[in-house]
Design brief:
Blueprint: H1 15-19, E1 22-27, H2 33-47, E2 51-56, H3 63-67, H4 70-78, H5 87-92, E3 95-101, H6 109-115, H7 119-123, E4 131-138, H8 145-159, E5 162-163, E6 184-186, H9 198-219
Helix pairs in contact: 2-9
Amino acid sequence: MGILNFFRKDTKGSDSTMENVKLAVIYYSSTGTNYEMAKWAKEGGKQAGAEVKLVKVPELAPQAAIDNNPAWKAHADATKDVPEVALEDLEWADAIIFSMPTRFGNLPAQMKQFLDTTGGLWFNGKLINKVVSGMSSANNPHGGQEATVKALYTSMMHWGAIIAAPGYTDPVQFTSGGNPYGVSVTVDQEGNMQEDIEDAVKHQAKRTVTIASWVKQGQQ
């Protein structure tokens, strides 16, 4: 029996339980790529029956830097009404999907700064058994996407979270770049995604919700 025969088995679960799963999609995006990925994740989570919040981490860059980059400024203006993440969103969520660009193979400062504020929740055991998954982007195929997602997962292991990597659990992984740690994409200088990742992002979101539903069932 080959690996293809096992695809999609992990998406089966109790529909009623999945309807009770609360998913937070938390992203950072300067010019829009990870915002689009976050919206696809939100859609995939809803298709799986979850209650979903989409929130962004606060911007740290000075306004002058944003104003000097037309694409950055346009995206900031277009998403000014997207709510910023709060620590209460982490407490609320059963499952969390993070999406962010790579910065030298690591997390962008904006995402790292937010994670650095979670010490109180961590200390009080409020992040244990959260089901988490990560996505990333870069300007070339080997720009650090995998390293960025794995850097996120290092923090998640400290949380005591349960990592829901997509692996190769669906054929869509082979047509969207093949990153087993989390969906990633290459973006050209004009901001165009070079791989078709929409279905892979939705699969990752559905898988994350499904695993969160299993965890909730086990805790009941």
